[in-house]
Design brief:
Length: about 290
Amino acid sequence: MLLIPDHAKQTLSDECDLRDRDQPHSPNPDASRGKTIVRAKGLVKVLGSGANELKVLKGIDLELKAGELTLLMGPSGSGKTTLLSILGCILTPTSGTLEIAGESTADLGPEGLADLRRRHVGFVFQSYNLFPTLNATQNILLALDLCGISGPEASECAVRALGEVGLTHRANAYPGQMSGGEKQRVAIARALAGSPSVILADEPTAALDSENGKAVMALLSEVAKDPSRAVLAVTHDHRTLAYADRIIQIEDGRIVSDERPTPAPEPESIGHAPEGKGGHERRQRWSCL
Ligand SMILES: Nc1ncnc2c1ncn2[C@@H]1O[C@H](COP(=O)(O)OP(=O)(O)O)[C@@H](O)[C@H]1O
Ligand SMILES: [Mg+2]
């Protein structure tokens, strides 16, 4: 019989924990690259009733792939927020089907949907939705607590998430002490902390100036490189298009276009293209197309 000393067991256990946390959805990240994370078919949503009844979504078919940042664009009132709310299991469709990370929502009641949402979905909102009386770390810990993660594991997740968005040095700052860009990065860290399969961001740059808006979109583009995660972001800002793997246009409740950007011009020649690791990798990828 193989005898493993206690301290070695602990080390093994710690390593397993770390592996699990680093690769929460697949033991082999490359195996899940391009995997369908969200699969929606024939989504219809009717809101209001009687004379105020409105068919907001008119049959949406959509698959979101792991490792991709998809931008959702369209006029105000075209159904973007409604679609995000359904994909994030906040709203249920009037008809149509939805699978998140391979789990169907068809037979789920409110509690089942909330559980699926907690395990698989991270939200980022235009207005950050941070609690003003909690600092950056505490905002993240609160969200983790709601997901059933607490204690040292939660603290590790919070530290890691703040590190991922480059805000380790602001861990103890309160929202009132942060810039808009920093607040949105904390909100992204909060969305990331529970290792969701999909991040849904509703106009995450709308309240930010141009530079901060680009920085947030660059961050989401980095976040989307995780081969076990899909990111869908609503945006009106055409300056953020350079960060997209895919751009979907919605009008009057229907998808009217779904494109992957053609090879981008060299960022140097367009002035304000993504910089840093993400931009470099994307440039390399596009140059191979
Ligand atoms: N709770 C509601 N009841 C009735 N109509 C709604 C409700 N929420 C949104 N709508 C309508 O649905 C349409 C789509 O809204 P929304 O999804 O918020 O669009 P977008 O995010 O693209 O601006 C709009 O015409 C809006 O007025
Ligand atoms: Mg909206």
